């Protein structure tokens, strides 16, 4: 995926029954979740109620080394976070997990998602005297919990009450002096799963691939609205806010998640294969070879080839040592990064009619560059196929799909987009079929960015567009 969509965040928490180097386990878990956030990362370790942490801007292997991990103490509980901002600037103050010192005891919190009422709540807490140190909506969640904690007897009861106040997408991992707590919003927009450790302890993570990285066994997903409390007595569940099946972001299956993850009982790899199969049936074409844009276009390309009978080929070599193109702040820098990051295998495409499969088109500039790479390598025809529908609406729940004026599908027809990016033809997966790619998943789906119809009422303004601006006005 070389378009300009910013990803989610990744959360990871561990409760071991014996004190150990839990920071190392979190490190490996975050490494497995690196695809979900590349701006910053952090680890907090709980050593008998004393919290020690290390956080910073950059990739996991840039922020942590043997020395920094060695300075974190042994313990039984720890949590970690990798971040890509959807609300809040790229600054050290916005790195997570957030650590809170409170009269009721310390708390650390890591969050994946986006609140739709963050600005309203922040103003409410500021009028009560609260002082914010970041521009992240995660800090708003921490205030909601600490405020409720003054009125309740436990942190899980405080979270249960706070969940009635915060609205939007949130998968949370929270650590208190003696507990590890996980929770998902009642709509289940973002993934969160539970694993078991050999010593009887537990792990919670955004994706099952992170469980695999430390040898934990997948147990189940956290239910939409569920609060899971892990302590010395084991695992307990609070389901007061579990009111419906859930509507997970379908783009988790299209792009965000790693293909080796299983989310809500459905294989991400299998979902992408099925997307490609649907795409081949919806937009058939006479061609000589099918190639995918690394990485998330590869599985869909394989599915397209299987369903169409057109041979599958490896058309690109990817430089693994260049960060994702949308990390670059300026469009020109992103375009240069595409040339550095991808190289076409000329012999595979030269003189051939090529089906080029990618997961999405946002602005169209990067897609045009990729089509040009194929044409310059000698392709006779280039037929672009996209394994998701056109983006026509913003996302309010943690994906950086912003205002309509930046979405090419809101400005041009499909044939016009094809001409703009230099493709002979262009075909998108339909909105009807995108929600069928993971039919075995035990969840409904949110596809609001493709349809303009959302599972819950959304604000008139785009919170993550306006949040930062409103805070400095």
Walkthrough of the structure:
Strands 3-2-4-1-10-9-11 form a 7-stranded antiparallel β-sheet. The chain has a 6-stranded antiparallel β-sheet with strand order 5-6-7-8-12-13. A 4-stranded parallel β-sheet has the order 17-20-21-22, with helices on both faces. With 473 residues, it is an alpha+beta fold. The protein has helices at residues 22-32, 60-63, 66-71, 118-127, 137-149, 155-162, 208-213, 251-256, 268-282, 296-308, 331-341, 346-349, 365-376, 414-421, 431-434, 448-451, 463-472, and strands at residues 10-20, 40-47, 50-57, 75-83, 98-100, 107-115, 168-175, 180-184, 193-196, 202-205, 217-221, 227-231, 234-238, 247-249, 262-263, 266-267, 289-292, 316-318, 342-344, 353-358, 381-386, 425-428, 444-446. The model is unreliable at 324-334 (pLDDT under 50). The protein has 2 domains: 10-245, Aminohydrolase, N-terminal nucleophile (Ntn) domain (Glutamine Phosphoribosylpyrophosphate, subunit 1, domain 1); 263-451, Rossmann fold. The chain is 31% helix and 25% strand. The radius of gyration is 22 Å and the shape is globular.
């Amino acid at each position: 995926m070389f378009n300009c969509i910013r990803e989610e965040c990744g959360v990871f928490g561990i409760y071991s029954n014996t004190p150990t180097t839990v920071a190392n386990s979190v490190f490996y878990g975050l490494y497995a979740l690196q695809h979900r956030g590349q701006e910053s990362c952090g680890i907090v370790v709980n050593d008998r109620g004393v919290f020690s942490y290390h956080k910073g801007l950059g990739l996991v292997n840039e922020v942590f080394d043997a020395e920094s991990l060695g300075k974190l103490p042994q313990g039984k509980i720890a949590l970690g976070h990798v971040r890509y901002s959807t609300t809040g600037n790229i600054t050290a103050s916005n790195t997570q997990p957030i650590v809170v010192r409170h009269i009721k005891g310390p708390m650390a919190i890591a969050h994946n998602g986006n609140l739709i009422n963050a600005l309203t709540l922040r103003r409410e807490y500021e009028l009560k005297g609260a002082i914010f140190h970041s521009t992240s909506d995660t800090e708003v969640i921490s205030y909601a919990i600490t405020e409720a904690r003054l009125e309740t007897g436990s942190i899980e009861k405080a979270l249960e009450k706070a969940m009635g106040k915060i609205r939007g997408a949130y998968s949370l991992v929270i650590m208190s002096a003696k507990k590890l707590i996980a929770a998902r919003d009642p709509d289940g927009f973002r993934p969160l799963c539970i694993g078991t450790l050999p010593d009887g302890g537990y792990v919670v993570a955004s994706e099952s691939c992170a469980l695999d990285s430390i040898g934990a066994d997948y147990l189940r997903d956290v239910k939409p609205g569920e609060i899971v409390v892990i302590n010395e007595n084991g695992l307990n569940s609070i389901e007061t806010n579990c009111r419906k099946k859930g509507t997970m972001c379908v783009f988790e299956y299209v792009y965000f998640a790693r293909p080796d993850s299983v989310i809500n009982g459905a294989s991400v790899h299998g979902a992408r294969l099925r997307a490609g199969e649907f795409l081949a049936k919806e937009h058939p074409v006479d061609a000589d070879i099918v190639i995918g844009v690394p990485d998330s276009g590869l599985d869909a390309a394989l599915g397209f080839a299987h369903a169409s009978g057109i041979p599958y080929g490896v058309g690109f070599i990817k430089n693994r040592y260049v960060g994702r193109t949308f990390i670059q702040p300026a469009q020109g820098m992103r375009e240069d990064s595409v040339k550095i990051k991808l190289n076409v295998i000329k012999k595979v495409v030269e003189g051939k009619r090529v089906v080029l499969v990618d997961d999405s088109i946002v602005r169209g500039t990067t897609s045009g560059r990729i089509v040009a790479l194929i044409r310059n390598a000698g392709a006779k025809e280039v037929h672009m196929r996209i394994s998701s529908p056109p983006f026509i609406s913003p996302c309010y729940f943690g994906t950086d799909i912003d205002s309509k004026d930046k979405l090419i599908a809101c400005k041009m027809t499909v044939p016009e987009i094809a001409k703009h990016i230099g493709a002979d033809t262009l075909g998108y997966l339909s909105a009807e079929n995108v929600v069928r790619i993971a039919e075995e998943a035990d969840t409904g789906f949110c596809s609001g960015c493709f349809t303009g119809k959302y599972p819950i009422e959304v604000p008139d303004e785009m919170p993550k567009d306006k949040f930062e601006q409103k805070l400095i006005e």
